[in-house]
């Protein structure tokens, strides 16, 4: 049996492997987790055992595999209640429709469900199942119940599945699940040895709005949530890139394993981007204000009865995308801009690509009725030198994952994640 590496800060993941066809991918997940110095203890359901063997799990984790609720020896060595609390994070991967239903119903009819009911630790599930099982109102209701109780969810992704149907239901890729585990694990992020197609590359990502002050209490802003840029940063890191995220003011938790530079104004964002150079990849997802107030008041502008409202003179902000795209020794090999448009989206975005000199543009339609700006989903047109590609509407995390795959393919043409955009 292979010895487990010394755990980082004594942190342990209790990994529950269920009976889905994607169970074999947990073996790669375990490798990623133990490679980051985490201790992994596994629980295998009876159905899970049909897909992976206890021997494989034991060999990869260097730990005993727990299978039976009524095992006299296990109960004697570590009771099921103690086991349920022995991990800092419980991860169910793959999470079957069945375990989600049993979790939502509060059943405790085998070791896995009993641990999930008895635990006082955070729980992350990585669902994987046939698209009809996923779309079924029962599964969606169970998912909503679990989310409402604080269970965290990674994936599923959209793509071709083992059953030859396409749609949502594919297990998220192991690096993406590992990243979610690192993110949700209490304590500092594990130091992950960079692996993946973007290992050794530095990516600069900008995200969020900018705030352009009028006076010490008022500012000009926009509705950007920063979510798309944060997801892109996570997806690039999951493929091994070292990521610097320059973020305007947003209401999002700081991503783990990523260098975060917080800024307020466009001028500060440009300075932080310049500091981050050199880099191989620049993804400018921030909704940078076009203008700032020419003469920012140093004290609050008072409303005086009878006096006209103050006139604001606006002056252009620096063009961060154009500056990063300009030829020069420090120009990243791949510069990607985002274009938020409200009409003739693809045409405006194609013109923006040429005007700014960037390599690709991710264009999205931000008319209020699309719900994209500030929302959880996105529908994009990717414009490259080869033409325009319309992607179907999908979650911002999925857009980020597919964009990161395309970036990886740019640097390593034979790279394929196996994910398809359907
Ligand atoms: C070949 C095969 C593949 C399966 N794949 C999945 C799957 O990907 N997702 C799923 O939810 N159930 C899948 N099932 C059904 C589960 O194995 C079944 O619901 C089982 O009761 C799950 O038990 P567990 O949740 O305790 O692991 C599959 C069944 C078979 C026979």
From TrEMBL:
UniProt pathway: Cofactor biosynthesis; coenzyme A biosynthesis; CoA from (R)-pantothenate: step 3/5; Cofactor biosynthesis; coenzyme A biosynthesis; CoA from (R)-pantothenate: step 2/5
A Pfam match is DFP
The segment annotated Phosphopantothenate--cysteine ligase runs over 203-422
Per the record, which residues fall in region Phosphopantothenoylcysteine decarboxylase?
1-202
Q: Where is the DNA/pantothenate metabolism flavoprotein C-terminal domain?
A: 198-409
Q: Name the coenzymes or cofactors required.
A: FMN; Mg(2+)
Kindly give the PANTHER family that the UniProt entry links to this protein. Answer: HOMO-OLIGOMERIC FLAVIN CONTAINING CYS DECARBOXYLASE FAMILY, PHOSPHOPANTOTHENOYLCYSTEINE DECARBOXYLASE
What HAMAP family has UniProt attached to this entry? CoaBC
Reaction catalysed by this chain? Answer: (R)-4'-phosphopantothenate + L-cysteine + CTP = N-[(R)-4-phosphopantothenoyl]-L-cysteine + CMP + diphosphate + H(+); N-[(R)-4-phosphopantothenoyl]-L-cysteine + H(+) = (R)-4'-phosphopantetheine + CO2
The residues annotated as the active site are 163 (proton donor)
Task: List the EC numbers from the record.
Answer: 4.1.1.36, 6.3.2.5
By sequence similarity, the record places it as follows:
In the N-terminal section; belongs to the HFCD (homo-oligomeric flavin containing Cys decarboxylase) superfamily. In the C-terminal section; belongs to the PPC synthetase family.
* A single cellular component GO annotation: phosphopantothenoylcysteine decarboxylase complex
Sequence positions that bind CTP: 290, 300, 318-321, 338, 352, 356
Explain the purpose of this protein.
Answer: Catalyzes two steps in the biosynthesis of coenzyme A. In the first step cysteine is conjugated to 4'-phosphopantothenate to form 4-phosphopantothenoylcysteine, in the latter compound is decarboxylated to form 4'-phosphopantotheine.
A GO molecular function for this record?
Answer: metal ion binding
**Domain Flavoprotein as annotated: residue spans:** 12-183
- Cofactor details (free text): Binds 1 FMN per subunit.
Single GO BP term: pantothenate catabolic process
Name by which UniProt lists this protein: Coenzyme A biosynthesis bifunctional protein CoaBC
- UniProt entry keywords in alphabetical sequence: Decarboxylase, Flavoprotein, FMN, Ligase, Lyase, Magnesium, Metal-binding, Multifunctional enzyme
Gene3D superfamilies noted in UniProt: CoaB-like (3.40.50.10300), Flavin prenyltransferase-like (3.40.50.1950)
